[in-house]
Amino acid sequence: MAYTINKRRTLRGIAFDLYYRWKGQRYRPLLGYDLASDEAERLAIEMISKIHRGEQVHPVRPSAPTLRSFFPTYWQALRVKHRVDLRRPETILEVHLLPRFGDRPLDSLTPEDGQSYVAERLDAKAAPGTIRKEWGVFMRILNLAVDFEKLDRNRLKRVQLPDVARRERVATNEELSAIQAEAAKRSPYRIMGRVYDPAEFWRIAQVALHTGLREAKILEIDRTWLRQRDDGWWLILPPSRTRLKGTPRELPLNHTAYRALRPEVATIEGPIFANWSADAFGHQWHRTCKAAKVQDLHFHDLRHTFTTRLQNLGVSLEVRSALLGHSTKAMMTSQYSHGGHGWNLKLREAVTQLETTYTKPVLSYGLSYEESHLLRPELKKVANSAEDQGKGWWSQRDLNPCLSLERAPS
User: What is the mean predicted confidence (pLDDT) over 231-237?
Assistant: First the structure.
């Protein structure tokens, strides 16, 4: 009498299910929750006896919901988790998953259905990374249905997915110069009340090359995030809104990054690049790269370029990770560390060295590198300060960015 007792995690606890075959039929009744081993074995023997006697071994469960009917529950879970980017999963559901699986009960889906979907997407020339993103959305829906006991188990979790080659694209100086030259040829244009300026477009690229920030975070930068300290300008960033993409708590700005964030004609308070939406900037980036004959260069590759340049300059992994907002084994205690004079000097030295080495091939619109006094004003000794060995004075207020309440001049 061969049988199996399977365990699964649910909202009510650990569920124990019996798996037993008898006279060509499969039986998977629920034995109970959070059972001890001997109790689960006893209940399994009693259930098998009922099966042999032909008794009803479990109540008839309601049919599993369809993907379309379970969609509101999944969407509500995303909002509870404060998922910021809802556009991507919504597009994946509406364009790919709902047309194919929308009206099928979730418990009717088989691994063969999943493998067929992957094969068809490959035949449609979809990138392996795109297929994995689509499948990740599908898996989260099925796993959530299991957690809410709308589905006994996720039958599609063993579906084989295509491997994704790790992207290691780094922009060259020649490519960046070509993109800058192509942007300089373009004139500002207006679409639905918004003015898109190619000079501002290139300043966004300069910020990425000298801070390593992602596109979405750069477009979000507010003027009030700029703080002037004894050693120059810093960018104080709000906490990351998701766990998927880490953000550094604060970033030192070298002269190039600061001038890119402070154009000659200052705007009112609010996002510095308020005219640019993510769609508009993405369209302009691909359009400019195509005109400059630069192939297969994503804007995110500028983040790769930033950290690769730092690595080539000999900047330590710990400093590079801090500037990128990454978490590494070397920074496991970062939540207990709150910066300080020595650490801030390391960060500042890294971005300054980056600027002095890589600004010559690619210049910014209207930036004069003789105006270094804007980056590092005349330093004065303040209370609770320690001498910086000839490099100026440092204040303990830098340990707490909230105490640096000076705003960038309008």
Answer: 90
State pLDDT tens for residues 192-205: 667 778 888 899 99
Largest CA distance in the chain: 93
Residue 384: the pLDDT is: 38
DSSP state of 54: T
Res 58: pLDDT = 52
Closest CA to 146 of 77, 43, 90, 44: 77
Predicted TM-score (pTM) above 0.70 = no
CB count in 10 Å sphere of residue 305 = 22
DSSP output for 297-336 = --TTHHHHHHHHHHHHTT--HHHHHHHHT---GGGTTGGG
Neighbours of 12 (CB within 10 A): 9
Predicted pLDDT of residue 370: 39
Pairwise CA distance, residues 380 & 377, whole Å: 9
The C-alpha atoms of residue 176 and residue 246 are separated, in whole angstroms, by 26
Question: Which domains can be identified in the chain, with CATH numbers?
Answer: 4-53 (no CATH), 67-147 (1.10.150), 173-403 (1.10.443.10)
Half-sphere exposure of 381 (CA within 13 A, CB side): 7
Greater pLDDT, 175 or 373 = 175
- Residue in 207, 209, 231 with CA at minimum distance from that of residue 343: 231
pLDDT confidence bin for 247, thresholds 50/70/90: confident
Q: Are 3 and 127 in contact (CB under 8 A)?
A: no
- Burial bucket for residue 257 (CB in 10 Å: 0-12, 13-18, 19+): buried
Residue 109 corresponds to which tokens in the numbers above? 């889906």
